[in-house]
Amino acid sequence: MRRFAKENGLSLFFATIFLATLVGQSFAGQHNYNAEQAAHGQQTLSWWHYVATPSFGGAVMENWQSEFLQFSLFIAATIWLVQKGSNESKALGDAGLESDEQQQIGLRTPTRGPRWAKADDIRTRIYENSLLIVMTLIFFATWFGQSLNNWRVFNEEQATHDAGRVSWGRYLLDPDFWEKTLQNWQSEFLAVGTLVVFTIYLRQRGSPESKPVGAPHDETATSG
Amino acid sequence: MAGDVHPSRPVPDDPRFDRRCADSHSPSSRADVLRDEDRQVRTMFVLYSLFIVGGVVFFVSVGLTQQ
């Protein structure tokens, strides 16, 4: 058990703080939601009923979608684009899909390598893009989830102001949907761009997200 | 066959492989170690997949439910 925790510490750590912050968000959201309900003389909700509201669902989904968009774009962009001096970039001459030899495909796949990498057929074409495919699918699924939940919230607000309800398709064109979407995207793009650029000059000893402390600033792709 | 992790996968011979495996003297114990390693990394992959699939299914269902 101790060995399991040690060898999976990174994913266990993030799983733990993910669940803790999600639960924290739900309780804080419930209190905020109930305070507004009470201020308008409306019924308050239990925690369980609150987590099944579009208000909570929209808040969760709009953050999830932006994170998965960020990583999908980062995975795709770093195939073709490089940044001299950055630890987050490939070496300048490696831009592109790289050779089968570099990617250990077909006969070059190690004995314990994935079977679909050894196949060197359509299965390999799928498997060699599987990370980007899955991350992009999660992005679209969560963006869809955001749109549905925020559409419900939008129509509830419309109803309280005696305004007409709108269809889901109409909501996708509404500034409310795009404000909630773009406010998340811009922060992700700034954060990932900052990581790309700051790793040129700044270091964190021991982190694979940083170059070695003594690495030259113009040296690219040299994880510590 | 003793020593196989999977019927189609021979006993590994990667010199960089985990020290635990190198310390295992018999083919069957090497296979046991490999199965354990596979299971460990698969556990976290399954856990995170459950987070994602569970979350998306739950919140899309909430969004689709008529209020």
What does it look like?
The complex is a heterodimer of chains A (224) and B (67). In chain A, 63% of the residues lie in helices and 0% in strands. By secondary structure, chain A is an all-alpha fold. The two termini of chain A are 29 Å apart. The model of chain A has no long low-confidence stretch (mean pLDDT 96). By secondary structure, chain B is an all-alpha fold. Chain B is built from two helices and no strands. Chain B has helices at residues 19-23, 27-64. The longest helix of chain B is centred in the C-terminal third of the chain and has 38 residues, at 27-64. Residues 1-12 of chain B have low confidence and may be disordered. Chain A binds chain B through residues 4, 7-8, 11-12, 15, 18, 52-54, 57-58, 60-61, 64, 110-112, 115, 138, 141-142, 144-145, 147-149, 151-152, 156, and chain B through 5, 8-10, 12-14, 17, 34, 40-41, 43-44, 47-48, 51-52, 55-56, 58-60, 62-64, 67.
Order of helices and strands of chain B: HH
How many beta strands in the DSSP annotation of chain B? Answer: 0
In the predicted model, the low-confidence regions of chain B spanning at least 5 consecutive residues are 1-12
The chain pair forming the largest interface, with residue counts per chain, is: A-B, 30 and 26 residues
- Report the principal-axis shape of chain B: rod-shaped
Structural class of chain A: mainly alpha
The overall strand count of chain A is: 0
Average pLDDT, all residues of chain A: 96
The overall pLDDT average of chain B reads 72
Low-confidence parts of chain A lasting 5 or more residues at pLDDT below 50? Answer: none
| Oligomeric state | heterodimer
Major beta sheet summary of chain A: none
Helix-strand topology string of chain A: HHHHHHHHH
Helical content of chain A stands at 55-70%
**Taking Cα atoms only, what radius of gyration of chain A do you get, to the nearest Å?**
23 Å
Q: Estimate the strand proportion of chain A.
A: under 5%
Helix content of chain B: 55-70%
Name the shape of chain A in a single word.
elongated
Tally of helical runs of chain B: 2
The structural class of chain B is mainly alpha
